[in-house]
Amino acid sequence: MLVTRWDRSLAAHLLSLVSNLERYIQGEDAAQLLPECVALRDLLQLWLLQNDTVPGETERYGALRHHLGIVSQLAMMEGRQLLPEHFSGGLMQQGPHLVYLWMPPSEEASNLSEQLSCYGFMVQTMYQASKLAQALQEATPAAVVAYTDFTAGDPIMALADTIRGLCPLLFCSSRYDFEARLLAVRAGAAGFLAWPLLAHELIDNLSFGDLGEKRDPLRVMIVEDMASLAGLYANVLNSHGVDALQVTDPARVLDGIVQFRPDLILMDMYMPECNGMELAQIIRQQRLLDGIPILFLSVEKRQSIQLDTLTLGIDGFLTKPVAPEELVVTVINRARRYRKLRSYMINDSLTGLLNHSHLYAQLEYEVLRAKRDQRALSLVMLDLDHFKTINDTYGHPAGDEVLVNLARFLKERLRRSDLISRYGGEEFAIVLPGTRQEDALRIMNAMRQAFSQIEQRSNQQTFHQTFSVGISSLATAEDTTQLVQQADDMLYQAKRLGRNRVEGYSPEHVPLSRRETEA
């Protein structure tokens, strides 16, 4: 009320409340709260002593709103226990990810281990409950994947509680009935997989939830004009493994969304210059940004106002000051849900990679950004060799399996900032921001060699698959169209020269048509 209109009696009452709070926390461990409380008290005393002048609306909106917001939010957080770290899976884990695999003694796991190693996983296979229990004491894995037929006395069920306290537990089983799935849920399973276990299905299950967020943390953009408040929210989210970007200038939000690619936007409803409702409408005008969930942070409690904002596509409200546990639970669950839904909206249904149209939209922006910042950028066009022969020899399901294996391989081996797309059919496109063409050549050559070692399976048969690559960069291309054309030319050059090779564009290159290459 004092922010919107000056009233000496209200100010005196607030000063009394602040003084009481200050005395209350004198003997407490409140290193952050006490100085902010003193600053608010001093501000109110200063204004009340000025009998002949009234603090202006701008001053109240700036200084009073700032200090009151910080004090109330800090007071809400003081002495509260945050949620346990396992709620969000902890901070990002580096290096190969250790997975414990529990299998029937009759099964051989070497092939699965080799496949998973190509995706950046290190697998330890165990056949005895005592070995698994001992291994859990020695090192905590990224996940435990356990075979079970859900019979009475299955030792993995006795270990389930212990495992879930350490890491995600995924069950695989030859049973698919409702009772088996219900037993898996009651045992706290994070996933349920068919047996025999396929590497790409396991990768898919590990891509979301706790482990997925260790490898690629949830991203939340905090739009709050008061940097100190934004910092408080960011610290709470960071402590639960969320990557939080703070934006205090609404004009920078659109660029920030494209660069940061948030899973959720946490936005103050009332900001100077551009309020949250206006900014939300600007975001919703952008076709590729329309689905990002937006949560308002506000002191607004009037139902009529909240209902009006829901018509703008706002996904919910958090009332200031917000309890840390409410902030964490609400933000993480909504962000997780959006991340999974977004993968269905903008990604190719078979491979999970960006689809053609979304790649072009992202590529246009990355080219503009690279030119503006004078940074390198390379484009990779990749095509599976003799893919029609795979379909003709082993069947279309085997061909789909190769496409999925390549997609997962690319996602595991490349950076989060790289854009990977299924360009069409058996052709893929990769955008490598900040990467010179010579570095892209080295990276793709190493990946080409590694992928050729992966054993592809079709029923009882095994085979190996290769790919060809063409690369261009902004060092030789003026715009997006030219960049794509040069990479495409080099892809067909690689195929003309025998396939299973990488070719980079040079100004001396003479383009070849697809018809000439195929001939």
Automatic annotation (TrEMBL):
Keyword Phosphoprotein appears in the UniProt entry: yes
CDD domains, sorted: GGDEF, REC
Domain GGDEF: 375-507
Domain Response regulatory positions: 219-335
Catalysed reaction, written as an equation: 2 GTP = 3',3'-c-di-GMP + 2 diphosphate
CC annotations in GO: plasma membrane
Entry superkingdom: Bacteria
PROSITE patterns, sorted: GGDEF (PS50887), RESPONSE_REGULATORY (PS50110)
Gene3D superfamilies: 3.30.70.270, 3.40.50.2300
E.C. no: 2.7.7.65
Chain positions found as 4-aspartylphosphate: D268
Keyword Phosphoprotein: yes
InterPro entries: CheY-like_superfamily (IPR011006), Diguanylate_Cyclase (IPR050469), GGDEF_dom (IPR000160), Nucleotide_cyclase (IPR029787), Rev_trsase/Diguanyl_cyclase (IPR043128), Sig_transdc_resp-reg_receiver (IPR001789)
GO biological process, one term: negative regulation of bacterial-type flagellum-dependent cell motility
Single GO MF descriptor: diguanylate cyclase activity
Keywords: Phosphoprotein
PANTHER family reported for this sequence: DIGUANYLATE CYCLASE DGCM-RELATED, REGULATORY COMPONENTS OF SENSORY TRANSDUCTION SYSTEM
Protein name in UniProt: diguanylate cyclase
